[in-house]
Amino acid sequence: MKDYKFYGWQDAIVPCLDPSLKGINNAQDFYDALSTIWCADTCAPRMRQDWTPENMTLGQCSITAFLVQDVFGGVVRGILRPGGNYHCYNVVDGHTFDLTSEQFGDEVLDYSSNPEQSRAVHFAKEEKRLRYEYLKAELYKKFS
User: Fold this and answer.
1) What is the rounded (10 degree) CA torsion for 34, 60, 96, 143?
2) DSSP string for 9-28
């Protein structure tokens, strides 16, 4: 078994609900798939100057978490960060995991008692919705 670095990777064995996605059986496979797609263009604009392939999850949280919700179900929750933004992660069938946690390095985040996040609120920002649509389109182009 591959040793992943994202939060909850050992628990990210929830099944993929979309059989059209070839080779994606669980959230670990999903991480592998997204690691071939995440790029500066999918990174949040305010962080884009700091995005690198070595820190590929930087600025990818909300678009990734809502795409995880599309493919695996569950809810998207958010950790309030300094500056008032939320860092998004997933809870699916009691399994908590955060495919983009590596961007925080050694910082320990609190994944307990965080509010559910609204797709409508996050995607009210057109740039975020467009980044999500691009990520989703690339995923389905490569894996279905």
Assistant:
1) -20
2) GGG--PBPS-TTSTT--BHH
